[in-house]
Amino acid sequence: MFRSFSVFNYRVWFIGALVSNVGAWMQATALSWVVLTQLTDNDATAMGVTMALQFAPPLLLVGVTGLVADRFDRRKLLFVTQGSLMVLGLTIGVLLLLGAMNLWTMYAFAFALGVVAAFDNPTRQAFVSDLVARENASNAVALNAASFNTARMIGPAVAGLVIVAVGTGWVFLVNALTFLAMLVALLLIRPAELAPRPKLRSAARMADGLRYVGGRPDLVVTFIMVFLLGAFGMNFPILASTMALEFGQNADGYGVLSSILAIGSLAGALLAARRDRARLRLVIGGLGLFAIASVLSAAMPVYLAYAATLMFIGFATVTTLTTANGYVQTTTEPALRGRVLALYMAILMGGTPFGAPIVGWVADAFGPRAAILLGAAAALVAFCVGGGWLLFSGRLHRHETRRFAMTIDETRPISVVAPEEFSDEVAATTPIRLPEGGDVVPGRADAATRRGR
């Protein structure tokens, strides 16, 4: 489960990310609460707009951010993005303490945070794979998710207490300080021990990543499922804050809900770290569990019962997203990984500008329980998309030896010869492994190889 910790660079990164993520979750909690209760009169639609402004830039800038992550030194790029996020958090905190913040100013800061995050997210995701050997990439991604969700257990609860005790402005100042941990970690990382990266051709473009994904139906289906979950299911700040108000809770009660969700999220991340590789079937299964848990949470009559269901929602969400992230990273060519991950993050986060205002409007018009059911319906549609693809692609079929059993063919991680290592001699002397079972019908060899048969 913890094999990536044997690498010095990963240990340093993990500690820095854990501290920084605690502050990030404190800020996310405070940002949602201040928009809902201080800058508006419990207006869930305004919160949806705030989330949309934060998550729109990754979609708008996807043509640039992935190429930047692939072309430039990711460690140096993270210095810039993490430092910029620290300055923005510090500025928001000061304005709140001075009483100079209003809704439109917060909208502007939300958009600015989104612009910086658009460059930070794909760079950070790809940098995790640079810290360890390729065979440990899936484990490193899962442990990274565990760090993220451990912070999610701590940050929102602490933020709720700080808001009640001294106000929201101080939460943003504490978050700014936590970025120092990440900056120190980046300084301590040994560049010479990072995994080598293929050099990009001067003509490398984002379109190369789009064409690559377009030629991988499994990635297309993964992106569709992630989009539906991100757009309608992962609007927790809207859903939990409005449900907290419905149950008569204050900021501390809302923070506790975030921490309880993180208990299930951490369990999902740690279980993902135990697996030898990411499997698409787990992405689909996680979506089914999310739909069921969301329906149950919408039916809960009291605060504690609702809180208990959030553990299952957190487990399902992280199982789905961690597995999808690991699947994308471990089956994508290294030279294109940054661009493909930029597309992945744009699809995941870019769904929020589309879905969050709709979810916020539904919560205002019909109540938060209806908004939760909307997310459950989206997850069910995503589950059907994934299950249908397994069936119609031929990966789900009857077992060859057991009469009533079914089996699923796997997509194996792709082994790639890096561009600068390619030569005619290597191409002429490298044996090609053919699928078992005799001759391969022309046109079907690639499909059989992708299924691992």
From TrEMBL:
Q: Which domain of life is it from?
A: Bacteria
Main subcellular localisation: membrane
Location of the protein in the cell: Cell membrane
SUPFAM superfamilies (alphabetical): MFS general substrate transporter (SSF103473)
Membrane-topology descriptor:
Multi-pass membrane protein
State the UniProt keywords alphabetically: Cell membrane, Membrane, Transmembrane, Transmembrane helix, Transport
Q: Transmembrane ranges?
A: 12-36, 48-70, 77-98, 104-120, 141-164, 170-189, 219-241, 253-273, 280-300, 306-328, 340-363, 369-392
The Major facilitator superfamily (MFS) profile domain is annotated at 1-394
Q: Per the record, a Pfam family?
A: MFS_3
Kindly indicate where the leader peptide sits in this chain: none
Q: Which PANTHER family match?
A: INTEGRAL MEMBRANE EFFLUX PROTEIN-RELATED, STAPHYLOFERRIN A TRANSPORTER
What's this protein's name?
Answer: MFS transporter
